[in-house]
Design goal:
Number of domains: 1
CATH topology: Alpha-Beta Plaits
Largest sheet: 5 strands, mixed
Structural class: alpha+beta
Oligomer: single chain
């Protein structure tokens, strides 16, 4: 299962992307995370359905310095060419 997600709120400049990477690695997901110019954080993640649902739940909760006001996501086509989760700049 692969999802494309967008987190809105106080999610830039507070370590949220690093939290996303650590969480994805803990759950053995592949994909990426990047800051958007409008202040959102964009995420694509792939893995088992249970792990993806756990991941999305953790992203909504965030970490202590972030405030996620809204997390949207949609299921997208899986990719076969990834073997890790990366922080994009």
């Amino acid at each position: 299962m692969r999802v494309h997600a967008r987190a809105r709120g106080r999610v830039q400049g507070v370590g949220y992307r690093y939290f996303v990477v650590r969480t994805a690695q803990e759950l053995a997901l592949t994909g990426w995370v990047i800051n958007c110019s409008n202040g959102d954080v964009e995420i694509e993640a792939q893995g088992g359905e249970i792990q993806i649902r756990d991941f999305l739940g953790r992203l909504e909760t965030g970490q202590p310095w972030a405030r996620v006001d809204r997390l949207t996501h949609e299921v997208v086509s899986e990719r076969k060419d990834e073997d890790h989760f990366e922080l994009r700049i």
